[in-house]
Structure to design on (372 residues):
C-alpha cells in the first residue's frame, strides 16, 4: 500500500503506513500556519483490504467541532463520490474503509481541480452569450478569471471559493453558469436581458492547488481582506474589487461552504452602518424566492445576525453592501449533508451543489427589477 498527495489539491502527511489497519496521517497546514482542515490523498495497492486511516491532528483543525457527524468521501472513478465510515475518536478523524479498486482517493469534499476549472472556462467562452477575461495575477502567478454574461443595466457580481477548501462552491458555479448560458431557459434569458452578470468561479486558485482550507499562497484569508487589499498579500481581492469599482455593483453573492452546519443558508449584511429597510426587503425577497425554487435551501438555521453597526467590514458581503449600498449576501453549503433532506450515500455532493447553483437564477430574477 502506498499513500500520496502530490497532485492538484492534495493534502496529507504520512506518519506511518506500515500497518493498513492503523495508518497514521496528519493534515498539512495552510500557508501562514493558521488554518487546516482540508485533506485529499490517494491510496494505491489496498484493493479488498480493510483499512483504517487516522488523521491524528484532527483535534487541531480550524473547526474541530465540525468532525461530529461528518463522513469523508471516497472515489475510485473520480466521477462518483460516496461517503464512507468516519468517526472522530480521541482527537483523531478515523476513516474505516475497504477499497474496491487498486486506486482510491479520499477527501474532505469532492475536489474541483484547476483542470476542471479550465474546462469550465472553455465551455463558457464557446457560448456566444459569454465573455471570458483575466482580471489579474495571483501570488503564485496564476490567472484570475472572470466570465461576463448578459447585457442588462443591473450589475451583478457572483464570486466563489475565496476559501479554496470549500470546493462545493465551484461545483455550484458550474451549475449556475450552465443554466445562465442556456439559450432555451426563459428565466435565464430574462436575467441576461435585465442584468450584466460578472462571475469569478474561483477566487483562490493558488490555495485550491496547494490543498489549503482557507488561505491563499501568502497565508491571507481572502474573506478578511476586503477593507484594504494589497497586491502583495491579497491580489485576488485587490483585482476583483478594482473591477467592481469599475463596473459598479447592484448585487453581490459570495458562495462558500460551512464546516459545521448541515444546511444551506444565507448570511446577510445586517451589521453594516448603511443597512436599511430597502436592503432588508431585498434580502428577505431573495431568500423566500430561493426557498421556493429549491427545498434544499432554508431560512431557519444559519449564523447569528450581527448587531447594527457591528459587522466585520473586512468581509466581502459587508464591505460590498456598504461600499455600493447594494444587496450583498454570503451563501453557505454544508460539508456534511443537508439535514432536512439527507442522502445516506452521497451526503451533500457535487450534483446537489450544481442544482442549487442552477436554481439561483430564480431568486435573482425575483429581485433584479427592484435592485435600484
Amino acid at each position: 500500500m502506498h499513500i500520496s498527495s502530490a497532485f492538484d489539491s492534495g493534502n496529507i502527511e504520512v506518519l506511518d503506513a506500515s500497518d493498513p489497519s492503523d495508518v497514521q496521517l496528519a493534515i498539512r497546514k495552510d500557508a501562514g500556519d493558521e488554518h487546516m482542515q482540508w485533506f485529499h490523498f490517494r491510496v494505491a495497492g489496498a484493493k479488498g483490504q480493510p483499512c483504517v486511516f487516522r488523521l491524528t491532528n484532527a483535534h487541531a483543525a480550524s473547526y474541530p467541532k465540525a468532525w461530529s457527524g461528518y463522513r469523508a468521501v471516497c472515489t475510485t472513478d473520480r466521477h462518483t463520490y460516496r461517503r464512507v465510515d468516519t468517526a472522530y475518536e480521541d482527537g483523531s478523524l478515523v476513516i474505516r474503509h475497504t477499497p474496491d479498486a487498486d486506486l482510491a482517493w479520499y477527501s474532505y469534499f469532492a475536489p474541483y481541480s484547476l483542470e476542471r476549472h479550465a474546462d469550465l472556462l472553455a465551455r463558457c467562452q464557446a457560448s456566444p452569450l459569454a465573455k471570458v477575461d483575466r482580471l489579474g495575477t495571483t501570488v503564485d502567478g496564476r490567472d484570475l478569471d472572470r466570465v461576463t454574461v448578459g447585457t442588462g443595466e443591473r450589475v451583478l457580481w457572483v464570486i466563489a471559493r475565496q476559501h479554496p477548501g470549500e470546493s462545493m462552491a465551484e461545483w455550484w458555479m458550474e451549475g449556475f453558469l450552465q443554466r445562465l448560458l442556456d439559450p432555451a431557459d426563459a428565466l435565464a434569458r430574462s436575467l441576461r436581458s435585465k442584468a450584466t452578470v460578472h462571475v469569478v468561479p474561483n477566487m483562490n486558485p493558488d490555495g485550491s492547488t496547494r490543498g489549503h482550507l482557507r488561505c491563499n499562497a501568502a497565508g491571507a484569508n481572502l474573506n478578511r481582506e476586503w477593507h484594504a487589499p494589497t497586491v502583495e498579500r491579497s491580489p485576488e481581492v485587490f483585482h476583483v474589487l478594482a473591477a467592481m469599482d469599475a463596473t459598479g455593483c447592484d448585487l453581490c453573492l459570495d458562495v462558500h461552504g460551512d464546516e459545521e452546519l448541515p444546511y444551506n443558508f444565507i448570511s446577510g449584511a445586517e451589521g453594516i452602518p448603511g443597512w436599511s429597510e430597502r436592503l432588508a426587503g431585498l434580502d428577505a425577497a431573495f431568500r423566500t424566492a430561493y426557498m421556493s425554487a429549491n427545498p434544499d435551501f432554508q431560512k431557519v438555521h444559519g449564523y447569528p445576525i450581527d448587531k447594527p453597526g457591528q459587522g466585520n467590514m473586512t468581509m466581502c458581503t459587508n464591505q460590498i453592501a456598504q461600499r455600493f449600498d447594494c444587496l450583498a449576501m454570503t451563501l453557505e453549503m454544508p460539508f456534511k449533508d443537508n439535514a432536512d433532506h439527507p442522502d445516506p450515500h452521497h451526503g451533500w455532493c457535487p450534483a446537489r451543489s450544481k442544482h442549487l447553483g442552477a436554481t439561483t437564477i430564480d431568486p435573482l430574477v425575483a429581485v433584479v427589477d427592484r435592485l435600484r
In short: Residues 277-293 form the longest helix (17 residues).
